[in-house]
Design goal:
Blueprint: H1 15-21, H2 37-64, H3 70-90, H4 94-100, H5 103-109, H6 115-123, H7 127-130, H8 140-158, H9 164-181, H10 190-201, H11 211-232
Helix pairs in contact: 2-3, 2-4, 2-6, 8-9, 8-11, 9-10, 10-11
Amino acid sequence: MSIPAYAPTATQKNPSYNKIRNSSINLDQEVSLFNTVQQREVYESLAELYSIITVLDFIEKSYVKDTLNKDGQDQYTPTVLRLLAQYNTILKNPEVNKEFGSLDTFKKNYNLNCPSATSRIEIGVPATVEHAINVPSSSGLTVAEATGNFITCMDALKLNYKAKDQLHPLLSDLMTSVNKVSSNKEFDGRGKLVEWLIKINKMNINEELSEEDTRQLLFDLDNAYKGFYTMLE
């Protein structure tokens, strides 16, 4: 029986096989994503961001579905605040920020489907802060804490604080402390503060408020401060 002309034989030369056999590449060697310590830190930071986003999405879905137990509900606000702070802190690194791109780009690159986390990251504060949902505690300590945070925010603006990483933590602390006193209660100016939180959160890390925005925020803070004390009367 003759062998067809197109069939390979034991003596037939295979260029691809010979190239691989003669190559110095070790096919059992693990391929590294990085060559320097700096590159390794960037990839580790991207992995941390991936973890933060997926965990945040799980927490948000659990909160909306009301499947958190009592301890989980108590820990929702501090946990989300911590995750958002970690997310923003990691992105302060210019190399990580460059590789990350935008949130939409990152999700597309790594096939992430996390609408709940996306919404929370864009807003920048937990749902309890956004909607004034908390356990009311009108003790002197909580009122003093909220008052101190109002004054801190206004003083920061007077000291020319304009960057996102300077103002967002202060406003977030303010809204958290205010909610401890005014749970489920609206007061004049509160809605404006939430709008400012969202606006500042959407700023780029190197972006600053304009002079006009700074003056408007200071005015809105003063108005909310007066509304807060009117509510306490």
